Amino acid sequence: MKRRDFLKILGGAAAGITTLGITGCIGPQNNEKPSITYETLMLTTTTSTYDTGLLDRINGEFEQRYGVNVYAVAQGTGAAIDTAKRGDSDLLLVHARELEDEFLKQGYGVNRRDIMFNDFIIVGPENDPADIKGMENALKAFEKIAETKSTFISRGDNVKDFITSGTHAKELEIWNKLGKNPEGNWYIGTGEGMGYVLNHADNSNDAYTLADRGTYLSMKKNLNLSMLVEGPIGNGSEILSNPYGLIAVNPGRHENVNYDLAMAYIGFITSRKGQKIIEDYTVNGEQLFYPKAISKEPNFQQYIPKGWKP
To answer: 219-242: per-residue pLDDT in tens?
Structure first.
């Protein structure tokens, strides 16, 4: 599909798309001329960055600085990668390192950067029928949920076509480590985004689910679900860590991608200004994401697939 056709389709949809300054009229503050104008950056991303509102904050600052338009399309990690593979996106912001590495190995992406992290958590009803509250081992918590056949709401994305979300990929990683293939009436796959899954679990009154910390905290005030098992931010299991990566689509694969603008965005979000936006972003007084791009020590692994050797 040609880029113009893809944007036309997205232009009529409301859910999952954010745009700021679509006409290109938004300029920088203090009457300074923007360094880039009247261009459009196509960013595909996971639902968690969209649902939390973080992208609106980052993109607003970027558009003011450069005088450009940003289309941010929230699809879930697997679907976002699939869109980028077709050349319908200039840039990816996702959170599933194995899927990101495969994207890089296949030559679709370049200049990957670590930009931020939070962690996954297990949330559920306050009465906690599986008795997992406070457990530090996420594998054992999953095992107890399965053994007690307590209701579990899963993202249940399309694994067959490799367009699973980062959250569902993490859930599958845990079940695989336990040697379990969850099935039965207690296990419910939805095929929906994180916000929908949290509301579904909440409405069920007795259900557990795996969620990224950012989306849960951003919706917390409207949910009765409790945070029962935490990842490394709460001194819990390292397996629940949730790093986010930013990858430019390879202009060698798709001549139509806006590579210069993608690199400008990467430069902005990994700058002190961009990282401060991430650090300062809170909902109901709680920090959702933690910046990771700036470090005294070099981290060459962020640019290449894990285990890759020339």
So the answer is: 999 999 999 999 999 999 999 999
